[in-house]
Amino acid sequence: MTEEWHHQPLKKQTTCLHIRSVASIDIEFEDLKYTVPQKNGSRNILKGVSGCLRSGELTAIMGPSGAGKSSLLNILTGFREAEGTIRSRRASCSGKGVKKYAKHSCYILQDNSLDPLFTVEETMNFAADLKLSRDVSKQNKQQIVYGILEALKLLPCRNTRCSMISGGQQKRLCVALELIGNPSIMFLDEPTTGLDSASSHQVISMLKSLAEQGRNIVCTIHQPSAALFELFDFIYVVADGRCIYQGSSRNVVSYLASFGLNCPKYHNPADYLLEVANGDYGDFTDVLEIKGRVNTWRNIRKDEDLTERNIPYKEIEDDHLSTGNSPSELYKLCILMKRSIKKMKRDWTISTLKTFLHLCVGIFLGLTYLNVGNDASKMIKNLGFLLVTIVYLGYTSLMPAVLKFPAELNILKRERFNNWYNLKTYYTAFLLIDLPMQLIFVLAYISGSYLLSAQPLDLSRFLMVVLVLFFVCAVASSMGVFFGTIVNPINGTFFGAITLALMLSVAGFLLLFTHMSNVMYSLTYISYLSYAMDALAQSIYGYDRPAVPCPESEEICLFVSPIELLREVGMDKPNFWNDIVFLGCNMIFLRLVSFCTLKKTLAKV
Fold first, then answer.
1. Mean residue pLDDT across the chain
2. What are the residues whose beta carbons fall under 8 Å from the beta carbon of 525, sequence distance 6 or more?
């Protein structure tokens, strides 16, 4: 398959991509105003800008830092809302007019948010499975993937991991991922940031060729070189929240000259334009804004019949643009789970190392508390072993969960915003992978520690212990996810450790339930460690366990009857299943709250 694509001419490959059948969608916006609140009132970012972005053109939104170019791009993508009107060709509506073309557009962020553990081809294949209909055969999907990689000159590095390719290749891969969905409109936030001049030229040249196929390509760019500047068909310049120029890159010099602003002969027109916008030659913003509203500096299209060569707008509204309908969310769930499993296999620290460490720690603690489970003289010590167990499993489940979503937030934001899948689908896939892993970690730990510490060899009691520890890990993981979605990782680990320490203080061992004041005892109702400790004590010593043998070497054992021990520490009531219900409800509640906070976090970033 690979050799075939190397020998096929580019035109023949692109016919397999369905990228030549691109609908023409023009974007018009009028009087857009965007305000952000501040301590002392509000700040106007955009002050009534208007313009038209046409299909078949590569558009650059330029301006000094803080001028409002990124805000304008975010509004056009639907990432932010603003006052004004946005129209897409013949369909118009005020405010949220972006929805008219949202399904046929994509937004490529400034950061190259790619999973470093997957190769280029694997990343493309996952995107194809999530975007293309199930009716598309595997062979056709492979043709589409290989064709896009070839067209964007990424085929030679298809077996290289995303972390090992250059910055320019990563940017082109981000574009390639969205080309699978065959978008009519592509928004890019500063695609040349962090790239050298050669890589920047490759990226902009690629975007130019995509625009020539009929797409509407819009990107922000800060300060392009003269060579890059000439590649853009349309320039939209923003200064102090107002438009001071909209037209062809070739007309910039003559436009400024009409105001007496003569660009030096060997000076980069883009640099000179930004210098004027910054006010280096005086304040011309008001004058430029008046003339900038007139759209007479744009070059006439080379092909006036561009709309006739593409799919008519009526078909756009009927969603006949892409290769079949989008897969069902259930199918996407399976793909996301498959991706997560593959990622765990690649990152041995997530599964293999953690399982091995749980096994080693379980053996170590089992040796530390050797035979305490069947020794009446060490029954209090055995309760200490149970406490160490839930604290260890709780802490090792909480901390990785704090870092889970912050590490994947940029990838999740890009894929979700570009309609790869629903957030509920992604979160469900995470749950279905996370919970079985928690059970595996519990079994790895308990398999050695349970036997070495001489806990009762009763299958029902063993399963009760496993069930309790599983819910401890699940609740701790849920709490970690919650902290990870509301604060940054550093604060999340701090809050997680503090919360665990507070719950440990009222778990029922460091300070027995029977010795607590009414205020302290009331805090046990919100500590999942106290419910876990009670449930473990019931699993080991409750439900009519016979007397524990007292060693002959001991003159007297303080506790021989398990019920006497439970009564002394305030855990004599058979509340095992009540404890399990609380832990289960706590887990479900935290998972639901975490989903809501994650959704809110994604709306902010």
1. 86
2. none
Sorted by sequence, the CB contacts under 8 Å of residue 325 that are 6+ apart come out as 133, 319
Rounded to two decimals, the pTM is 0.84
pLDDT number for residue 358: 96
Query: Phi, psi (5° rounding) for residue 46?
Result: -115, 135
Alpha helices in 232-328 (DSSP H): 252-257, 269-278, 285-292, 313-317
H/E element holding 51?
Answer: strand 41-53
- Position 91 pLDDT exceeds 60: no
**Kind and range of the H or E run holding 50:** strand 41-53
- Distance between CA atoms of residues 550 and 13, nearest Å: 81
DSSP assignment of 483-533: HHHHS-HHHHHHHHHHHHHHHHHTSSTTTTGGG--HHHHHHGGG-HHHHHH
pLDDT tens column, 546-603: 989 888 887 788 888 899 999 989 898 888 999 999 999 999 999 999 999 999 988 7
On the 0-12 / 13-18 / 19+ scale of CB atoms within 10 A, 449 is buried
Phi-psi region of 123 (alpha: psi -120 to 50; beta: other; left: phi over 0): alpha
Checking 421-427 for CB contacts under 8 A at 24+ apart, the result is 421/130, 421/329, 421/332, 421/336, 422/329, 422/332, 423/595, 423/598, 423/599, 423/602, 424/329, 424/595, 425/329, 425/332, 425/333, 425/336, 426/336, 427/595, 427/598
Sequence-separated (6 or more) residues with CB below 8 Å from residue 498: none
- pLDDT tens digits along 446-465: 999 999 999 999 999 999 99
- Domains of the chain in start order, with CATH, are 2-300 (3.40.50.300), 329-604 (no CATH)
Q: Which of 211, 386, 221, 179 is nearest to 301 (CA)?
A: 211
Q: Which two tokens stand for residue 470?
A: 């599983």
Backbone φ and ψ of 237, nearest 5°: -105, 130
> What pLDDT is attached to residue 473?
96
Helix, strand, or coil here: 345?
Answer: helix
Rounded to whole angstroms, the Cα distance separating 470 from 475 reads 9
Rounded to the nearest angstrom, the gap between the alpha carbon of residue 295 and the centroid of all alpha carbons in its chain is 39
